[in-house]
Design goal:
20 strands, two-stranded antiparallel ribbon, mainly beta, 8 helices, 14-stranded antiparallel beta barrel
């Protein structure tokens, strides 16, 4: 045992409470930091926002549904006339003249570039999976119109990702954050106390490890959100159809982070017990695990009108029915010293914890025009992210609501796309641009998303086709870690999907 710094000076202890699960540090973009200049009241409210991050992850699918829809981006809702209409506007299912079967495979490549204290690190994660499989069965009713039933599976979101972060911090440290954030209560449970990285001196809880430390973070994310869906489109009158779809979701999310602070310049090589100005410190490591099992459902209502043979317009409304997660969370800590002593601290109960999320509604409108083999489409949708909620036995639901109102805003998603059937050639070309505004109230946080889609199809015959689509999803995230100190993350998700479709 480190007899000097570990001596608790119980008679002078500045008492503080046992911190709740240190989930706040995940919120701050998965670096184990928080701003020491913030007031304690803000610090507590901010902790609730970690659940907003969970809900945002599940409320913003990154899948393509199918290659054609993926190449056209959000503008596809202005066309919505094949299997993918099941997810964006089921009223468009009545546009299929024949039964349709389609299936696709997808490959994702995540690339992240993080700059922290002048050091830039890059990381790459890849995954491959079944993109979708589905069938649409139309029924002709003569002059009375048509109705169509669609059933399918999709990979709605793929969570494969992660970053590597490194930098020499001359301004602050996580260890000092644990010390300065301590409130009245028992020191037991504070990582800096348990690891003998801080002590009580002259009735003050202090640590010498306040700055000049190398900080390293390794983050890995895995998992996926999948759907099983069924939908119905019905022609109400000529050139007007209505639709409804039930979408059930299931999946998992796995998060692993290793955060390390180390004395890379060997500044802390001795122990001054009088003033606690130094310590024979080598490094501190925090390992965090989060595993969530996911399930939920939603209803999509849609309407589509056709105006002659060239113009189409529609609208849809998505009503979340509920979303649940069962979470297991665990954090462990260890610290090592130059005398080869190591201390460990594992405060968590990893028992599963149920969480119920309320997702925001989504309103979408879209239209398209078709002339001489060229189709131009556009779409826009809004979703009020302030309506996100989280509740559970260990969650302050009021705090989540306050955090949502303080941190989030209404998100706008819009895009344009084109599709061109090359005359006298068995080829079709597609392209699009989609823009998602940031869901965060403070634009400085970043989070806006740009999506570029490019694809094409090759007709194998009158009723079969091969499609290939590439999409690039680009976003920048800027985060305040400490007063005047932050990092920038540039994230690119490359998606490649191939499909076979046949009508019969």
């Amino acid at each position: 045992m480190k007899t000097d710094i570990s001596h608790r000076h119980e008679q002078n202890t500045y008492i503080l409470h046992r911190p709740r699960r240190f989930r706040l540090y995940r919120l701050l973009c998965m670096l184990a930091f928080t701003c020491t200049s913030f007031p304690a009241t803000y610090f507590s409210a901010r902790a609730q926002a970690v659940y907003l991050e969970d809900a945002l992850r599940y409320a913003r699918p990154n899948g393509m549904t199918a290659p054609r829809a993926g190449a056209l981006g959000i503008a596809y809702s202005g066309i919505a006339d094949d299997f993918a209409a099941l997810y964006v506007n089921p009223a468009g299912l009545t546009m299929l003249p024949l039964a349709e079967f389609s299936a696709s495979g997808q490959f994702n490549s995540y690339n992240g570039t993080v700059t922290h204290f002048g050091t830039t690190m890059s990381s790459n994660r890849t995954s491959g999976f079944l993109g979708h499989i589905g069938i649409v069965l139309p029924v002709r009713l003569g002059d009375a119109g048509n109705y169509s039933i669609a059933i399918g599976y999709t990979r709605e979101s793929d969570f494969t990702g992660g970053d590597t972060i490194s930098g020499f911090n001359t301004a602050s440290s996580l260890i000092n954050t644990w010390v300065t954030r301590q409130q009245a209560g028992n020191l037991n449970g504070n990582p800096a106390w348990e690891l003998a990285l801080a002590d009580v001196v002259n009735n003050r809880f202090i640590t010498p490890l306040r700055s000049n430390l190398q900080q390293e973070v390794g983050i890995r994310e895995r998992g996926a959100l999948n759907t099983l869906s069924i939908g119905l489109g019905v022609d109400i009158i000529r050139n007007l159809s209505l639709g409804i779809a039930f979408i059930g979701t299931f999946g998992e999310y796995n998060y692993r982070r290793i955060f390390r602070e180390l004395d890379a310049q060997n500044r802390y090589t001795r122990l001054d017990t009088r003033n606690l100005t130094d310590i024979d410190f080598r490094d501190m490591r925090m390992v965090e695990f989060i595993d969530q099992g996911l399930s939920g459902s939603r209803l999509v209502f849609g309407a589509q009108g056709r105006f002659g043979d060239n113009i189409r317009a529609g609208a849809s409304f998505t009503l979340p029915l509920g979303f649940q997660a069962t979470e297991q969370f665990s954090t462990s800590y260890n610290a090592s010293f130059d005398n080869n002593e190591t201390r460990f601290f594992n405060p968590n109960d990893p028992s599963p914890m149920p969480i119920a999320f309320t997702m925001p509604w989504v309103l979408n409108v879209g239209a398209s025009a078709h002339f001489s083999g060229l189709t131009v489409a556009g779409s826009a949708e809004i979703s009020d992210m302030r309506l996100i909620r989280a509740r559970g036995s260990a969650i302050d639901a009021t705090g989540v609501e306050q955090a949502a109102n303080a941190l989030l805003t209404t998100q706008l998603r819009a895009g344009v796309g084109i599709e061109y059937d090359i005359p006298n050639r068995p080829f079709v070309l597609r392209g699009s641009y989609s823009y998602f505004s940031s869901p965060y109230l403070q634009s400085a946080t970043g989070g806006a998303l740009s999506i570029f889609g490019l694809g094409g199809g090759y007709y194998l015959g009158a009723n079969s086709r091969l499609d290939l689509t590439y999409r690039a999803n680009l976003t920048n995230v800027n985060n305040l870690l400490y007063s005047g100190t932050g990092y920038t993350s540039e994230q690119v998700l490359h998606q490649l999907q191939a499909q076979y479709v046949i009508r019969f």
